[in-house]
């Protein structure tokens, strides 16, 4: 076998068409199979034809065919019994053994043909072939029976009838050896001949032969190893009995008994030698060559059966000479092989008696196993973590601190199986240092867990840690009594430890109440009635425990922003209807309301106020009997807040306010803004106060940031609630109310437009977000929108919003975050804010509030800011094609025209190369189905040619170089469009046809630069396996479609808009020098293994090598969420 065949990173595709091995799908065949009894099939005895009168007239070819049919029929009953799975294999094997004892050559021939049939070969080995041909010649003859294009055979076939074929073959081999263990296993004919044939087939070039024979040989070896272990045990027992008999006094010694035991012992020794010879033949003839076969399934079979040998007969196999193969294959390229090696090692390390024999292996390969916890295949990584736990528990040295530290971060991985395995590792590690007192166990465990969480670097991902430990430490994590007593204990827990324990407790409450893992780990599954019942029981336990103690927790931590904001999430998981069941619990409700209202008046942080509002709104639900009590408390809070706000605002508007008035107004308005996001506050008429504050701030430029930001929020939510009310009105009142709302909306947009140019970034950003939100709801669209969409944007507002995007989104933020103390989190937060702003602007384009041509201001930066905003811009471009493919193509062309018109003479060549690079990236976004983009590309080229020819009548040739950019789109054109464009080019540019740019563009149209036009109407040919090594390029199928035609006048499309977009009032900034996109993506380490083709060295000289693997840590900042919000 060639060395190049030893490893292959990928297997060939399985095709059932044209295979020698065909599925039996005919109705009559299925009917015949379905009517078989669950017993041994009837053997078909063919009468001998020797000596008959008909045989005298047969030719040698006829006799050969008849012999093949007889052999195939004789072997078919074994194959059918295994394939169908409905026959009693033990009975089948007993019948075969009876026939073998009558005629051993016929029995061997039947067994050989069974192996051939299991390989999917239609060929047959006859008695003449077996007696006159060598094994190599027989295999060569059988190889010719295979179609060279076929890769299908029973072991890899799909379908219900082949689902248990592999298990059936393995069971057949095991039962065969068991039936021959006392006699035929030592007759030097049956198994020697079978092993010789399997060794030859295992070295065949045909994968079906190699795979099937290796599986049978490996299972045969496993069965023989089991028999050898029993024979060894019997020999040792017989030897001891013989020694005991010999040690007896002469008068009590039985000479006959001693001779009998000695004969039995000699016989067992002979059996041991015979079995050792068979095992050595299989190991050296099959395993040593096939454990590194190019087919991963074959390598996996070898590793699986090697594990059986190591466990069944450790005296012979559990040594470094055999363990080294498992260690070497830990570096295999295929995950299935690595997984099988890890599973094999797990079963070895589970046995305490094997640990001493594994010491050298552990020292050599432990480093590799530690690396495998980051394997790119999650299943391998999961089992590697479990294996490390066994090594840590079973071996004396265990794992070092550094090796354990490599496992701990995996509890935060997004793959739940890997995280749970790491959670089990962490749990057992923490439990190993706990004392044995059960009453202190939970307290100690929670303290250790909190310390671990503090030392970790993932403080925002407590839910991942809790979910990882949920299966193994659920009892400790649901011990609410211990948690709350620790937190309420005065001076019992340090401040940092308190924060960690509150985080863990609240995540445990959520996990117990919802019975679901965190979002990125969640798996869609149907919740059973039992799971719902258990979930309801957990919620009841949480409610009964926390209702009395929760006000105490709030009272103790009411001044701490982080702690109280986390604690306020707990009531959302209570069974709130319990509050109305008794008077004692109603008192607890009053305490809760009092604490929440006091917290709202104490704090100004949005996170605390939002948590309080969520709790109050949940309690105000009409489904609860106590909702009236909660409504009164909320109304009192709002009344006092509005009264205080009105008094302070009056002082501010009159100009007589002091710092206390500004602080009080800002605090009150912040509370009202948060409430406005959750409930209708239009009845309190806050819009006028907010508008006056905003107007005064813009006009006087005495801007109070803490006052204007909540004023913008409150005014925007007022408009939204008004819109909700309008949709519920009748047609008569709807029109008048809408008119009043649009008037307020116009005033609000004017103020927001003024805020876009202020120096304070918070006000500027909030104003832009509010504008995008209100325009989505009220902005007029081209199609039929909702009844609210009657507001038309003026050109100044459009230009101001476009300028905001250019100046503050597509800008270099390094100057803003250049301080030494600025960390990566601030940069990431700033990037997320800019992505949100860009997504809001793209919404306006997609939903028709802004015309499609407004996308030119975004497409200009597609290449420059691809890492930061590439996904948003690409999705916007894709959605624009759905709106109008022709208009979208013209927008792309207009974008390039604007960039070309803004070229500066000093750096013209460099900037021209950047525009060409952008054109290449935009051209790729057009569909690979060239038939669908015929009209859009034709319109794009025509616009580009007209732009390039502007000024030719006056002798101005500056725009001709634009044809160089336009040529980047030529490779997508089909032949009819190429001809049209050539005619159009020669007509428009007739006076400058000899110019270089014109000739270059003409060549791009005539040569079909990147794809031949003729290939567009062809269908890709099917690739032939093994017989054809080269495959042509992908050719586009002929799909006829009609593109939409746009009636817009060409000159009208570019008139005015091009001049408007060339320059902006504010200077442009350079792009980010270093993107922070890597901080948005989850951590992923790629795995790469390098296997060697030559023989591996002995285990003592083996040098383990590292390779990078991959696992994913959680991230709460997913770029996809912006796209989901954008196009929901």
From TrEMBL:
GO cellular component terms attached to this protein's record: chromatin; chromosome, centromeric region; cohesin complex; nucleus
Keywords: Cell cycle, Cell division, Chromosome, Chromosome partition, Coiled coil, Nucleus
Biased segments, Low complexity type: 48-58, 1068-1085
Protein name in the entry: Cohesin subunit SA
Domain (SCD): residue spans on this chain: 287-372
Polar residues composition bias: residue spans: 1008-1018
Function, in words: Component of cohesin complex, a complex required for the cohesion of sister chromatids after DNA replication. The cohesin complex apparently forms a large proteinaceous ring within which sister chromatids can be trapped. At anaphase, the complex is cleaved and dissociates from chromatin, allowing sister chromatids to segregate.
């Amino acid at each position: 076998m060639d060395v190049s065949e030893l490893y292959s990173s990928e297997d060939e595709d399985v095709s059932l068409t044209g295979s020698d091995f065909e599925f039996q799908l005919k109705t009559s065949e299925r009917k015949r199979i379905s009517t078989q009894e669950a017993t041994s099939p009837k053997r078909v005895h063919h009468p001998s034809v020797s000596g008959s009168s008909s045989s005298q007239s047969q030719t040698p070819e006829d006799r050969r065919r008849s012999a093949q049919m007889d052999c195939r029929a004789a072997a078919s009953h074994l194959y059918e019994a295994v394939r169908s799975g409905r026959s009693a294999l033990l009975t089948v094997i007993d019948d075969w053994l009876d026939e073998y004892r009558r005629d051993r050559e016929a029995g061997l021939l039947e067994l050989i043909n069974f192996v051939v049939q299991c390989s999917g070969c239609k060929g047959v080995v006859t008695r003449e072939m077996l007696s006159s041909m060598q094994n190599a010649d027989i295999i060569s003859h059988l190889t010719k029976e295979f179609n060279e294009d076929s890769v299908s055979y029973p072991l890899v076939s799909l379908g219900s009838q082949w689902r248990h074929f592999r298990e059936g073959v393995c069971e057949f081999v095991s039962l065969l050896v068991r039936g021959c263990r006392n006699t035929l296993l030592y007759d030097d004919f049956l198994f020697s001949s079978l092993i010789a044939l399997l060794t030859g087939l295992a070295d065949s070039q045909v994968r079906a032969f190699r795979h099937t024979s290796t599986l049978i040989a490996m299972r045969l070896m496993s069965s023989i190893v089991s028999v050898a272990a029993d024979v060894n045990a019997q020999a040792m027992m017989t030897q001891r009995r013989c020694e005991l008999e010999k040690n007896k006094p002469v008068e009590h010694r039985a000479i006959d008994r001693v001779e009998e035991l000695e004969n039995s012992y000699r016989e067992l020794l002979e059996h041991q030698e015979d079995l050792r010879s068979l095992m050595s033949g299989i190991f050296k003839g099959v395993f040593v060559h096939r454990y590194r076969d190019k087919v991963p399934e074959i390598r996996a079979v070898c590793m699986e059966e090697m594990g059986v040998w190591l466990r069944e007969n450790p005296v012979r196999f559990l040594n470094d000479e055999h363990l080294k193969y498992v260690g070497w294959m830990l570096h295999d390229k295929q995950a299935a092989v690595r997984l099988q090696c890890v599973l094999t090692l797990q079963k070895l390390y589970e046995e305490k008696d094997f640990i001493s024999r594994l010491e050298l292996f552990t020292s050599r390969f432990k480093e590799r196993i530690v690396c495998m916890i980051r394997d790119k295949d999650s299943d391998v990584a999961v089992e590697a973590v479990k294996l490390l736990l066994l090594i840590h528990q079973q071996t004396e040295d265990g794992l070092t601190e550094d090796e354990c530290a490599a496992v701990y971060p995996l509890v935060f991985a997004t793959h739940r199986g890997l995280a749970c395995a790491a959670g089990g590792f962490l749990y057992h590690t923490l439990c190993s240092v706990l004392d044995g007192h059960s009453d202190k166990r939970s307290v100690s465990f929670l303290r250790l867990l909190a310390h671990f969480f503090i030392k970790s670097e993932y403080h925002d991902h407590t839910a991942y840690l809790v979910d990882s430990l949920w299966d193994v430490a659920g009892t400790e994590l649901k011990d609410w009594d211990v948690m709350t007593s620790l937190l309420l204990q005065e001076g019992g827990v340090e401040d940092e430890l308190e924060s960690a324990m509150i985080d863990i407790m609240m995540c445990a409450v959520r996990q117990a109440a919802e019975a679901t893992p965190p979002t990125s780990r969640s798996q869609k599954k149907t919740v059973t009635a039992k799971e719902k019942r258990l979930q309801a029981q957990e919620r009841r336990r949480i409610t009964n425990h926390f209702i009395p103690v929760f006000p105490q927790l709030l009272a103790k931590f009411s001044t701490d922003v982080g702690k109280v904001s986390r604690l306020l999430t707990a009531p959302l998981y209570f069974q709130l209807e319990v509050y109305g069941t008794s008077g004692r619990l109603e008192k607890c409700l009053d305490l809760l309301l009092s604490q929440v209202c006091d917290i709202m008046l104490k704090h100004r942080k949005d996170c605390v106020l939002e948590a309080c509002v969520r709790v109050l709104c949940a309690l105000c639900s009409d489904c609860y009997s106590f909702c009236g009590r909660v409504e009164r408390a909320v109304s009192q809070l709002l009344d006092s807040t509005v009264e205080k706000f009105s008094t302070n605002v009056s002082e501010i508007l009159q100009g007589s306010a002091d710092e206390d008035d500004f602080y009080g107004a800002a605090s009150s308005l912040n509370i009202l803004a948060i409430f406005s996001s959750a409930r209708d506050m239009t009845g309190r008429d806050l819009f006028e106060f907010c508008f006056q504050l905003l107007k005064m701030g813009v006009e006087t430029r005495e801007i109070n940031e803490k006052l204007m930001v909540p004023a913008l929020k409150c005014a925007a939510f007022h408009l939204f609630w008004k819109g909700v009310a309008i949709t519920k009105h009748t047609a008569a009142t709807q029109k008048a109310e809408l008119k009043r709302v649009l008037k307020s909306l116009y005033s609000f947009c004017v103020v927001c437009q003024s805020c876009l140019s202020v120096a304070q970034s918070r006000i500027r950003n909030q104003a832009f977000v509010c504008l995008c939100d209100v325009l989505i709801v009220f902005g007029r669209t081209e199609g039929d929108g909702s009844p609210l969409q009657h507001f038309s944007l003026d050109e100044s507002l459009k230009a101001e919003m476009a300028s905001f995007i250019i100046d503050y989104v597509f800008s270099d933020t390094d100057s803003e975050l250049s301080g030494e103390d600025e960390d990566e989190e601030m940069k990431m937060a700033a990037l997320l804010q800019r992505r949100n702003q860009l997504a809001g602007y793209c919404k306006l384009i997609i939903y028709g509030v802004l015309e499609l041509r407004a996308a030119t201001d975004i497409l200009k930066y597609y290449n420059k800011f691809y890492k930061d905003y590439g996904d948003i811009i690409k999705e916007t471009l894709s959605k624009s094609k759905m709106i109008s493919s022709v208009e979208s193509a013209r927008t792309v062309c207009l974008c390039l025209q604007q960039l070309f018109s803004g070229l500066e003479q000093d750096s013209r060549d460099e900037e021209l190369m950047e525009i060409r690079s952008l054109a290449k990236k935009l051209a790729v976004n057009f569909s690979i189905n060239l038939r669908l983009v015929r009209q859009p590309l034709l319109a794009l080229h025509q616009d580009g040619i007209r732009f390039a020819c502007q000024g030719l009548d006056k002798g101005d040739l500056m725009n001709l170089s634009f044809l160089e950019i336009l040529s980047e789109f030529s490779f997508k054109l089909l032949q009819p469009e190429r001809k049209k464009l050539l005619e159009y080019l020669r007509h428009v540019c007739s006076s400058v046809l000899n110019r270089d740019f014109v000739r270059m563009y003409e060549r791009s149209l005539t040569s079909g630069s990147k794809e031949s036009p003729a290939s567009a109407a062809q269908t890709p040919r099917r690739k032939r396996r093994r017989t054809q090594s080269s495959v042509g390029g992908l050719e586009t199928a002929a799909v006829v479609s009609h593109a939409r035609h746009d009636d817009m006048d060409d000159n009208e499309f570019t008139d005015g808009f091009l001049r408007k977009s060339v320059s902006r009032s504010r200077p442009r900034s350079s792009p980010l020098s270093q993107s922070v996109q890597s901080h948005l993506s989850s951590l992923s380490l790629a795995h790469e293994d390098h296997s060697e083709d030559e023989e591996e060295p002995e285990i003592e000289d083996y040098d383990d090598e590292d390779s990078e693997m991959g696992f994913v840590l959680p991230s709460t900042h997913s770029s996809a969420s912006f796209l989901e919000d954008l196009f929901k």
